[in-house]
């Protein structure tokens, strides 16, 4: 295969990607190629990735357990910190049990094929993340794609499927559009057709439902037919993925999920950082106005209530964008897509933003069908950052 020719094809189609690595911690301002830029490209929604709480927890675990895990989880790669994180994750999600994966991608590509077989039917939202798509492709199940957030179309597919075992899969907050799936009515529909509901909560955990995710947001009680997948790597500021559900589901995944069985475990330091992040979000979901007195000592008291601040910043950004004539959805999530007609136009806008000190890369096919600037809001953004972003976007599209 002529890869040089294929690279040139990508270049001509404005689809060639290049990597730009930062020379600093994740945060509000990042340094790329020697320039300080306002960062609107991160999934670090609560700004915890560089927080002293997570760094301190990781340092202590590094001293206690070393760096590399040395083996897969089913051999000797796990530690008591891994087990504690899984217990905390299950409680955080209201589930009986949880299992940790090396990434959200590994969770979806491991769990989905493991939970289905050739007697199953998978019903997947048309805009689900690539990791879900790949997990479905690895499954032996019959696959159905329903129109995005179209529950009538989903029901028609479920009604006509002869398969006894049905699994509906959706993101809760969609990663490229920022809209929210109707989890309440999806759950009712799954109950009606005796189907399991698999929720990818990656962009909802730490953000909606007082940080606990989509089920809490919609006031849906977890049950044996609901499987919650999520990540520690976005709002929780760490690394790794998880699946939470009934004890039977999680025990089965420990025995069958290939991406878990055949991967070296994440270091204990990563698990410790994730644990510190959940403890922070748990503390703030109970008393969102101030830090509670019983907050663990390793979490610095000067940290603001990040969840509340995040949503105030989201509201401010969406309001200012609308005032400038941008079309913005009503969903109160940190993901705000500004869609353009062509890839060339999107690249031009992204380049103009870069000139004005704003880092917001173009999102292009095949990641999305319609190119866009995907604005990601974080709790670390200040009002003047949002104002600069909106003014820069207005200037860039003139």
UniProtKB/TrEMBL annotation:
EC number(s) on record?
2.3.1.47
Task: Show the PROSITE patterns listed in the entry.
Answer: AA_TRANSFER_CLASS_2
Which superkingdom? Bacteria
Would I find Acyltransferase among this entry's keywords? yes
Q: Which cofactor does it need?
A: pyridoxal 5'-phosphate
Aminotransferase class I/classII large domain residues are 36-393
InterPro entries given for it? Aminotrans_II_pyridoxalP_BS, Aminotransferase_I/II_large, AON_synthase_class-II, PyrdxlP-dep_Trfase, PyrdxlP-dep_Trfase_major, PyrdxlP-dep_Trfase_small
Q: What family is reported? A: Belongs to the class-II pyridoxal-phosphate-dependent aminotransferase family. BioF subfamily.
- Kindly give the PANTHER family that the UniProt entry links to this protein: 8-AMINO-7-OXONONANOATE SYNTHASE (PTHR13693:SF77), CLASS II AMINOTRANSFERASE/8-AMINO-7-OXONONANOATE SYNTHASE (PTHR13693)
Stated name of the protein: 8-amino-7-oxononanoate synthase
Its ancestry begins with: Bacteria, Pseudomonadati, Nitrospirota, Nitrospiria, Nitrospirales
